[in-house]
């Protein structure tokens, strides 16, 4: 059943993003920013963790999870190290994903020729 809910919830997040493109005529940058901020706000109010427990990968794979990770890491480190922890916490939690994206992007650029 977890696979079903992951598919449905992840799909709903994607539907919201697509509606931002089609109905509201927002650019990809605006849409992505709104979804990241939505994930951050939901985590700030303590609502994203229960959503992750319910939806599993349907909540952790979309871009809203990036906002969740930023706020979650910042709040966690702020409790330990104060104000400096806010800055370091964001980078500590998200650094693995950002590093992987950069590394795989470079590898992809080495093996594939862009069309143009």
From TrEMBL:
Q: List all membrane-crossing ranges.
A: 6-24, 31-48, 54-71, 83-112
Keyword set, alphabetical order:
Membrane, Transmembrane, Transmembrane helix
Q: Which InterPro entries match?
A: Spore_V_AE (IPR014204), SpoVA (IPR005562)
The highest taxon in the source lineage is Bacteria
Q: What is this protein called?
A: Stage V sporulation protein AE
Q: Which species?
A: Heyndrickxia ginsengihumi
Q: What is the lineage of its organism?
A: Bacteria, Bacillati, Bacillota, Bacilli, Bacillales
